[in-house]
Amino acid sequence: SLGLETRRTGEFPSLLSQMMLVGEETGDVEGALNTVSDALDVEVANALRGLVALVEPVIILLMGVAVAVVVFAMLMPIFQMNAGIA
């Protein structure tokens, strides 16, 4: 059966294999696959949320560095002119 083959290969999540077997036994493979789809959608959404939480501070830090470089580039000529006058 397809459920046993997905388990045997080890390439698929165990949830898929188990739900395929349950779906084959109950005769509702479509419903079982819909349940797996919903569960994996939630898992992917959680993983993306975690990734965004990790990347967001890095982006904010890089933007701060970019602003500091621009401010430094604008103020440095002014300080050099003042040093030349004094």
Structure, explained:
This protein is an all-alpha fold and 86 residues long. It has one domain. 91% of the residues lie in helices and 0% in strands. The chain has three helices and no strands. α1 runs antiparallel to α2 (14-26) and α2 (14-26) packs antiparallel against α3 (29-85). The longest helix is centred in the middle third of the chain and has 57 residues, at 29-85. The termini are far apart. The relative contact order is 0.07. The mean pLDDT is 92.
Rounded Rg: 28 Å
Strand content: under 5%
Please describe the biggest sheet, giving its number of strands, its sense, and whether it closes into a barrel. Answer: none
Instruction: Tell the overall outline.
Output: rod-shaped
Number of domains: 1
Task: Provide a brief overview of the structure.
The chain is built from 3 helices and no strands. With 86 residues, the protein is mainly alpha-helical.
